Amino acid sequence: MKEYRTFDVHYEDISFEQRGHAAWITIRREGRGNSFRRETLEEIRGAVERAGEGPGIRSVVITAAGKRFFSTGGDVTDYNLRYVDDLTGMKSYERAMERTFSEIMHCPKPVIHRVNGDVVGGANAFHLAADFVVMNRTAKLQQVGVGVGSVAAFGPVQWWPLMVGDRRARDVLMALKPVTSELAEQWGVVNTVCDYEELDAEVEKIVDNLARMFPEALRYTKVALNHQKELMFREMTQAREWCTLHFPSMESRAGFGAFFNKKPVDSNPSWQALDTGHNTVAPYGGYSVHCKACGADHLPEDHRFCGVCGEDLEKKKAAA
Questions:
Q1: How far is CA 112 from CA 22, 118, 122, in A?
Q2: 217-242 pLDDT, tens per residue?
């Protein structure tokens, strides 16, 4: 038999330990709102995979440090410093998100999301991908995508309608309605709501109950229940490609930039770009102008001067 050394691993952003029948994965970036960077996601994915294969482990618990935030979603500092001019790196980051939530959904053992605090933005995919959810009574679930020039494309737009229905999903994803623990329980988004001090005990009840079940039957039941989630997963892959193309747009730069710089978000310039017949990826027209003076190509149609050499493009057009 292969020797599994499930917990013989070092992680920087998370802790990974065994508690009874469960493997506990805890995001430990409390000073950054437990937001996740690419490394955080890859560590979580690796830990879930190890737990899924590890002997003696019958459930996986995912939680975070503290009681204010489970996670504020993607690390906006990474967006603005690390990926602002590295779209290849941004695509890799988004692929890491897709792989992480896929691993949670496909883990052969039940995954329990212990919601210790607020779940913001992309972090909502954790509770939507998990099998069971125990939520702190003072926590809330909050989407922010359209308010910061982005789309909750990695789970929420696919799985919220499945979880709560079309109209409620539009409230959550388009109007950004906060989902309190009371609403979450009423809508069936979570299994249990309790005070923070009772979270561990409620999680242990689920762990102990699942530990009594037959493993292969439990595993296949999870696979069967995931059928509709699986059908929507393909759309997540397509959405990843759109998000990568949209990341350099006015919307993303204005929304994430305002959040990063702690300034009010202003969507009006993006609306004005649409009002002029353009869009937020090409707010000054298509990239079809060529500068004969310096040879620069793919310049915006509405620009009067070449952004490379400063040549007056209007005079060149008139001369032509």
A1: 10, 16, 18
A2: 999 999 999 999 988 877 777 887 88
